[in-house]
């Protein structure tokens, strides 16, 4: 995003509420599904509550419109305490840093600008920005990796790229003082080392925790007319929020041609358009319950051979599910990328179910474009009546019931300092100070509560009373946080492999999936082509090396 675009974006923020908001209905949330809402969350933190955390949560306050640049700057300034304890005023005068990251949904880098403006004013350093759209991010980073021409000092990056960046010596090792400033012990367990490390060295300042969860419209599943039509159609089960992908499919097909509140009703929203590799996660969320067996840590590749599993019956079923559901989804869904499904469709009032990262929950009541704040519920991803056992080559029904396997997609965004600053002590300290400011514990709470592009990643973000003090209803936020923490802590979570080239695998898959969803290939044909492309890439990178790193990423 160019500077003039950024200024134009800030000007547009003067108009706070979208006309769409008028479509939002009232009504409290009813009973919620899940693995016990709130079971992984502290109900209160009266003893730990701080004036600072209380103060920043009122900026601007839930229900008072989307935060603006002025809000981001206020929060950034209030959270400067840790920086002031480690850095003298004006200590970095004359230092110039470049920062590469996303401008996705007008978030990410735009917030970083606001958060870091008071840091710049205090320290004397200056930052220039390299802003990338989500679809452009992976090619730009991979070009820098392949050529070794890193032209930035600080990088917003996800853990899956650590094999490419940290493994090639392109990143700077985190100093001990930064570890203390950001309170790494507060991270949820699945984001602690080895995530963020390479060869035992810490590189990442975590600013996000990623998992896909299930978002649904509560009004759909309380609608008496839909319940009657469901029964009249011969269904013997209750009209309720789906718990399995089999139920999601049935509901999606049933809703075709129906209406709710005078508008066309739709079921699940699939993200079919390629998205720089990130779109593959959405097929992964349809596949994880089918493909991730509780007795097997792997689900993308066989651990001993790196043979792809993407063309086994579990993944083929997930691909076929998308093909079968598309005729019942909104027109032109083939051209819907994840931003479309999550922010334009679901938050805008179209569709009743979608998988996304935690942004949907934090945006439902705080984003000007949302019309569903009072009618949105959350759960972990749907399960499956059966699960494919890759070791036995057969489908199995578990004695415990449906198989659940939350897709821990992307392992969250982090901030990484590049090794090119190591030769300049002042610049090195400045870059790490900026990264530490963005990864601060209190700032993290604000970014989880308000639209930011980031979701919960710290245990301290799970205190319900703090979210309530910001303006969230207790039932709503208890349900939302349960969907997050129950995914993070699930014993059968589908873990992301931090192996070199992982987004090359995903991007190759996206290109072939686009043809498959468009009807140019059968589900099995498309899956076989993806597997063949993955095999070729593995051989190019080095199979034995990939096997060792894949096992390590799974803790084997």
From TrEMBL:
PROSITE patterns found in the cross-reference section: TAT (PS51318)
User: SUPFAM superfamilies, per this entry?
Assistant: Periplasmic binding protein-like II
**Organism domain of life:** Bacteria
Q: Which UniProt keywords apply?
A: Signal, Transport
Q: Which InterPro entries match?
A: Bact_solute-bd_prot1 (IPR050490), TAT_signal (IPR006311)
Q: Which family does it belong to?
A: Belongs to the bacterial solute-binding protein 1 family.
> Which protein, by its recorded name, is this?
Sugar ABC transporter substrate-binding protein
């Amino acid at each position: 995003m160019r500077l003039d675009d950024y200024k134009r974006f800030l000007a547009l923020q003067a108009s706070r509420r979208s006309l769409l908001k008028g479509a939002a209905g009232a009504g409290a949330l009813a009973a919620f599904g899940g693995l016990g809402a709130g079971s992984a969350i502290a109900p209160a933190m009266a003893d730990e509550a701080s004036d600072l955390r209380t103060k920043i949560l009122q900026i601007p306050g839930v229900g008072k419109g989307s935060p603006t640049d002025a809000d981001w700057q206020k929060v950034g300034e209030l959270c400067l305490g840790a920086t002031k304890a480690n850095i003298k005023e004006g200590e970095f005068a004359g230092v110039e840093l470049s920062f590469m990251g996303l401008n996705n949904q007008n978030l990410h880098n735009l917030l970083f600008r606001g958060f870091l403006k008071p840091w710049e004013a205090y320290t004397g350093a200056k930052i220039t920005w390299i802003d990338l759209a989500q679809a452009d991010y992976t090619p730009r980073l991979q070009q820098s990796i392949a050529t070794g021409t890193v032209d930035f000092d600080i990088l917003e990056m996800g853990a899956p790229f650590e094999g490419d960046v940290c493994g090639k010596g392109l990143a700077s090792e985190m100093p001990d003082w930064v570890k203390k400033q950001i309170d790494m012990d507060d991270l949820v367990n699945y984001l602690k080392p080895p995530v963020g490390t390479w060869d035992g060295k810490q590189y990442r300042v975590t600013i996000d925790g990623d998992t896909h969860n299930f978002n649904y419209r509560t009004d759909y599943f309380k609608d008496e007319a839909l319940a009657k039509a469901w029964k009249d159609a011969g269904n013997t089960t209750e009209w309720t929020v789906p718990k399995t992908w089999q139920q999601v499919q049935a509901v999606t097909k049933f809703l075709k041609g129906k209406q709710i509140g005078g508008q066309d009703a739709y079921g699940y929203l699939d993200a079919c358009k390629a998205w720089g590799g990130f779109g593959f996660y959405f097929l992964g969320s349809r596949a994880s319950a089918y493909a991730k067996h509780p007795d097997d840590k792997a689900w993308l590749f066989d651990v001993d051979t790196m043979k792809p599993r993407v063309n086994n019956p579990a993944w083929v079923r997930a691909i076929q599910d998308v093909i079968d559901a598309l005729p019942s989804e909104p027109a032109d869904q083939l051209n819907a990328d994840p931003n479309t499904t999550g922010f334009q469709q679901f938050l805008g009032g179209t569709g009743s179910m979608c998988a996304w990262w935690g942004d949907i929950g934090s945006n439902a009541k705080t984003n000007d474009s949302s019309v569903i704040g009072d009618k949105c519920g959350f759960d972990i991803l749907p399960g499956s009546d059966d699960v494919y056992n890759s070791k036995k080559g057969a489908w199995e029904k578990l004695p415990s019931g449906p198989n659940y396997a939350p897709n821990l997609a992307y392992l969250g965004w982090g901030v990484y300092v590049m090794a090119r600053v190591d030769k300049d002590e002042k610049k090195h300290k400045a870059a790490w100070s900026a990264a530490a400011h963005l990864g601060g514990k209190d700032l993290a709470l604000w970014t989880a509560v308000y639209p930011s592009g980031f979701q919960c990643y710290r245990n301290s973000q799970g205190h319900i009373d703090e979210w309530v003090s910001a303006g969230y209803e207790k039932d709503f936020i208890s349900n939302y946080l349960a969907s997050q923490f129950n995914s993070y802590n699930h014993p059968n979570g589908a873990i992301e492999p931090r192996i070199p080239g992982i987004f090359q695998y995903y991007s190759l898959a996206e290109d072939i999936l686009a043809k498959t969803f468009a009807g140019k290939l059968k589900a099995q044909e498309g899956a076989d082509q993806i597997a063949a492309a993955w095999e070729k890439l593995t051989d190019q990178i080095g199979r034995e090396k990939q096997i060792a790193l894949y096992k390590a990423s799974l803790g084997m």
